[in-house]
């Protein structure tokens, strides 16, 4: 059974930083792409940042230059360093490991709240 466990969310003032972590356990290969979505109240879930096992990254335009996704293959863990946070970044952040053609595995979500 695959489990994705997120940590690192919280409340921060605008301009501040947070780092999210997502540890994958169970029968999931460390070669899988891993990343993050987020969902703000009343909005659709949005793809934020992903990283392949080879280190190739891609980001939503709204977070480019502020967020950095990274991973530790040995720990099967993906991270999201979030800097220069804005109130618009407030959302529940979900870790995701896509398994094409389906959506793959999801974490339980961690709340990030940015106050103005």
Structure description:
By secondary structure, the chain is mainly beta. Helix content is 0%, strand content 55%. The N and C termini lie far apart (40 Å). The model has no long low-confidence stretch (mean pLDDT 95).
Number of helical elements: 0
Report low-confidence residues grouped into runs of 5 or more: none
Secondary-structure-based class equals mainly beta
Query: What is the radius of gyration computed over CA atoms, rounded to a whole number of angstroms?
Result: 13 Å
Q: What overall geometry do the principal axes of the alpha carbons give?
A: globular
First and last CA, distance: 40 Å
Instruction: Estimate the strand proportion.
Output: over 45%
Average pLDDT, all residues: 95
Number of strands: 11
Describe the largest sheet.
Answer: 7 strands, mixed
Helix-strand sequence: EEEEEEEEEEE
Offer a few descriptive terms.
single chain; 116 residues; mainly beta; 7-stranded mixed sheet; globular
Give the structure's gist in a few sentences.
The protein is mainly beta and about 120 residues long.
Topology:
Elements: E1 3-7, E2 10-13, E3 18-25, E4 34-39, E5 46-51, E6 57-59, E7 67-72, E8 77-82, E9 91-99, E10 102-106, E11 110-115
Parallel strand pairs: 2-11
Antiparallel strand pairs: 1-3, 3-8, 4-5, 4-9, 5-6, 7-8, 9-10, 9-11
